[in-house]
Amino acid sequence: MDETTRQATRQWTLAQPAVSAFIASVVRDFRDRDDVLQDVAVAVVESFHAYDPNSPFIPWAIGIARRQVGTYLRRRSRDPLVFDDDAVACLAIAFHEQAQERSAAHDYLQDCLGSLEGRAKKLIGLRYRDDMKPAAIASHIDMTPNAVAKALQRVREQLKECIQRKVVEASAS
Asked: 1-107 has which fold?
């Protein structure tokens, strides 16, 4: 596999859930959704050479999905419950905004995780990096499973507050 195809595949893997959700918001039939999603994936790979790596990938992929959905809707134009182009455009904008918000929240989460120290950092690492359940963590660090679950709950709340604080700071600046 050449490097361009590898990059397209990486980017598509990250964008696929948002693109799939956008398609599902417009295309009612689940078989048609799969077909449209597959058409979008092919179009993304085929036109990846035109993608500007300095711009966000998800909106670019949603733009391709919007065109593929438009093609699908034109073929189904006799269906009285089909969205018009303006409705599809509004949905594409909404999904783009949601993808940006999720991306920012993910970045904030990484920052907040980096600020964890001591036991909190160890607990989160064991739970999410090592995929251990509270009972396994408890035996690993000499705590009760209940104490581990409660401590994890407090750390998740701390992370949530940190992310919310960063969102407020970003919107203020």
From this structure: Rna Polymerase Sigma Factor; Chain: A (1.10.1740)
Distance (Å, rounded) from C-alpha 122 to C-alpha 3? 37
Confidence check: pLDDT of 10 > 70? yes
Q: How many Å apart are CA 48 and CA 45, to the nearest integer? A: 5
Three-state SS string over 139-165 comes to: HHHCCCHHHHHHHHHHHHHHHHHHHHH
As a whole number of angstroms, the longest Cα–Cα distance in the chain is 66
Structure tokens at 109: 């989460």
- Contact by Cβ (8 Å): 40, 68: yes
For 73-129, how does the pLDDT look when each residue is reduced to its tens digit (9 = 90+)? 887 765 555 566 777 777 777 777 777 777 777 788 888 999 999 999 999 999 988
16, 41 in Cβ contact below 8 A? yes
Report d(CA 157, CA 150) in Å as an integer. Answer: 11
Query: What letter would DSSP give residue 129?
Result: I
CATH code of the domain made up of 115-173: 1.10.10
- Residue boundaries of the structural domains of the chain: 1-107, 115-173
In this prediction the pTM is 0.50
Rounded to whole angstroms, how far apart are CA atoms 27 and 43?
A: 18
- Across the chain, the runs of DSSP E, i.e. the strands, are none
